[in-house]
Amino acid sequence: MASTTPRRNTRKTCGPSSTSGYVGVDLAALPKNQTGACTLSDGEYSCTTLRSDEEILQYIRDANPAVIAFDAPLTLPRGRCCFDDACCGTRKIRECDRMLISRGHRVFPPGFSFMKQLTLRGVALRKILEAEGYRLIEVHPRTSMRILGHADFGASPRTEHERDACAAALVAKLYDEGLAEELGDDEGVIVIPKAPMK
To answer: pLDDT tens digits for 13-35?
Structure first.
């Protein structure tokens, strides 16, 4: 299984040669539900609500971001190719999930019943975008905002999903600036902000 460890300088010639800004995606498990999306560029947050995979992919391609941050698991637990226990065992949680939980953060691992469809959708989108050369990270906006304490997203976010997408985009920017921490291993990596200096 491919790692979600972000790669640098791998953009292919699938669009404009220069990247601009950051995209955060608060992915819904099913296309019929709302996916929040945000572009952060020049300090401004711009949000929208999307549904289908093609809408999400086109939004990202149009934005051509330096980093994309998904609020969704982007890898399966080690040894799994699907969520059929008869096929590949019962492992439901990744090391990166354990690391966040050990720090007192509440996360729902990929193998939990209500997370399975979201994880499979996130993995599928990751494979498409990585094949096009985009840099992706997995984030957890609620944890990130607990660490940061506060962020001003302006008037753009209209829904909770769009607000989480803003937080994801902010973490993408912090990651790109070396102000974030990567938790996990080749099974999967979750990126969180470094704690602000007191």
So the answer is: 333 335 679 999 999 999 999 99
119-142 pLDDT tens trace? 999 999 999 999 999 999 999 999
Q: SS in 3 state form for the chain?
A: CCCCCCCCCCCCCCCCCCCCCEEEEECCCCCCCCEEEEEEECCEEEEEEECCHHHHHHHHHHHCCCEEEECCCCCCCCCCCCCCHHHHCCCCCCHHHHHHHHCCCCCCCCCCHHHHHHHHHHHHHHHHHHHCCCCEEEECHHHHHHHHCCCCCCCCCCCHHHHHHHHHHHHHHHHHCCCEEEEEECCEEEEEECCCCC
Predicted TM-score (pTM) of this structure: 0.89
